[in-house]
Write a structure and sequence with these properties.
The protein is 36% helix and 29% strand. With 284 residues, it is α/β, with parallel strands linked by helices.
Length: 284
């Protein structure tokens, strides 16, 4: 048992805004590490674990959140041993849940429990519940860029930075991401292949190297879309360099507009557009 670690808990019903306020509570007690739905977070960075919010079913979500799976349990205990935190904040929906997580991870008994009603108004809690039940959105207390590689293909809200006062008006800065899990009743989040093509064609109009997009093929997977593009390019350009730059712009804009992580993208120069004067030359 990690007997030197002080264990705190943040408790509230599902969907009441615990993850949204987790860093505020942690900052108020000078806690650097947070355990939330299967992951260990330190300073806006996921350092261990697999989010329960990625689970394909609600049953598996509970198993991951409680660290019932032996492999996941060992990984988290190993991470705690590695980082040697002085204190940890555990998020849960009930006193029993946070106590069970602490016991499963061989942590000391919970020293103090903070409840969502201690840090949020009834109106704020109701608003958080509506976001969960109506929009199917879940918050993870880390930036979007940090979790994007793990949540490829999920709907992610853009990076949000909140500056406010915590418990006792203690200032803190918190970055969070909002996701919609695949098992949500709203259904899987998909984007038409036409959208990808339209984005690519729009960017080609701004390119000095691309004259026409000839073909776009998209293969979707849980890891994100794989995109293949055939283009007509201008004569005389550095094809490798220009297509590389165009590819980077496409990936950046697709990820920005669709919130989906592009697994891979390949652009091929299928045709070369010759200047008018070269087309008029009579080659013999």
């Amino acid at each position: 048992m990690n007997s030197d670690i002080e264990v705190y808990a943040f408790v509230g019903p599902s969907g009441t805004g615990k993850s949204y306020r987790a860093q505020m509570v942690a900052s108020s007690y000078d806690i650097k590490y947070i355990i939330d739905d299967g992951i260990l977070v330190k300073d806006n960075e996921i350092v261990a674990g697999n989010s329960a919010k990625k689970a394909p079913t609600k049953i598996e979500t509970v198993r991951r959140a409680l660290f019932i799976d032996e492999t996941q349990n060992k990984q988290m205990r190993k991470a705690i041993k590695k980082y040697k935190p002085e204190s940890i904040l555990i998020l849960g929906t009930s006193d029993n849940m946070v106590k069970e997580i602490a016991a499963n991870l061989e942590l000391p008994e919970v020293k103090k429990i903070v409840y969502i009603t201690d840090v949020a108004t009834e109106q704020e809690i109701d608003s958080a519940k509506r976001m969960r039940t109506v929009e199917g959105k879940h918050v993870i207390p880390v930036p979007t860029f940090e979790i994007k590689k793990d949540f490829s293909g999920f709907l992610l809200d853009p990076l949000q930075i909140f500056k406010t006062n915590g418990i006792g008006n203690k200032p803190y800065i918190s970055e969070k991401s909002i996701i919609r899990p695949t098992f949500n009743y709203i259904g899987n989040f998909t984007i038409s292949d036409t959208v990808f093509r339209q984005i690519i064609e729009y960017l080609s109009l701004k390119s000095d190297a691309i004259t026409q997009i000839l073909r776009v093929r998209v293969n979707n997977s849980e890891e994100g879309p794989t995109i293949y593009v055939e283009a007509e390019v201008k004569y005389g350009i550095n094809i490798l360099s220009e297509l590389g730059n165009f590819k980077e712009k496409c990936i950046k804009e697709i990820e920005r507009l669709t919130a989906m992580n592009v697994k891979s993208m390949r652009i091929i120069a299928k045709k070369i557009k010759l200047p008018i004067n070269l087309n008029l030359i009579n080659f013999k």
